[in-house]
UniProtKB/TrEMBL annotation:
Residues covered by the MOFRL-associated domain: 2-168
A Pfam short name: MOFRL
Cross-referenced Gene3D superfamilies: Glycerate kinase, MOFRL-like N-terminal domain, MOFRL domain
Name recorded for this polypeptide: Glycerate kinase
GO cellular component labels: cytoplasm
Amino acid sequence: DGHVIVPHGQAAALERIQIHEAGHPVPDEAGVQAGRAVLKVLADADEKTLVICLISGGGSALLVCPSDGVTLEDLQTTNQALLACGATIVEINTLRKHLSAVKGGQLARAAAPARMLTLILSDVVGDPLDAIASGPTVPDTTSFEDCAAIIDRYGLGNLLPPRVIMRLGDGASGGRIETPKPGDPMFDRVTNILVANNDSAVRAAAREADDLGYKSFVLSTVIEGETRDVAKVHAAIAREIRASGRPCEPPCCLISGGETTVTLRGSGRGGRNQEFVLAAALEIDGADGITVCSVGTDGIDGTTDAAGAIADGQTAARSIAAGLDPYASLEENDSNAIFT
């Protein structure tokens, strides 16, 4: 028996495994029901049980089980505030872990004393296992005190629900049970294995570029920062290559990976990849011989049905000719309007 949780629209019929569809990137009631189903099956586990987990990016939103005193609406409001403020995925998942009954090693706690094997696909820079999908089977290295610091750092005190502020405040003062930490003997029967990450995706892209006749040049696999600023840097390097052949001679394929952040300024639709491409397109406007592509390895960019976008030096002009304003779209975080 088993349960798989996927975003809405991605279910398939299986004989013994039940597939649950749930909300992503904002959790929904379907995710709560899926989380309850997972906990219910784990309740029957004993020391003779083998539990196999596959954890990937997106798991934080899909596997949902609010902690005592916190509602789904509280989680949704908190998630939206964190996504909008420019917090990193590690910071976002720090709060998620302390508002959940399954994240931050607590899924392993629910399965104990069973033997657990977890295969992990990383979408987090540096591959910290406790941050990927909020580390449901991994010892948690963060604390309630870290949550309080993040709230102060981004000025979220008046944006998060009162029940969330109360729980995290109680935890920071020692009034709540912490998530299981490194050294807890419970994890002696848990094995976590990283099976793929950003580096493996970048290496694969480089091999494909070489096979197509380009000179692949990997800039970095740990790119972070504000998306539109990172896009400007990449566009500048591409223009330098066209002008001087530095740091590599054309035909060259620049490749990088990581996880940038978008600080929401408007109310449009898009994602970090589409915003990256739009910002880069404005920087290479009118340039010949430069094409920019950015995609999410999970096939989902933001709240859209696109994996990302592709543009060249004529994209901005074509958009304007079609009656669109790419500059306004960027300011409104409405990159999807340019590419659809």
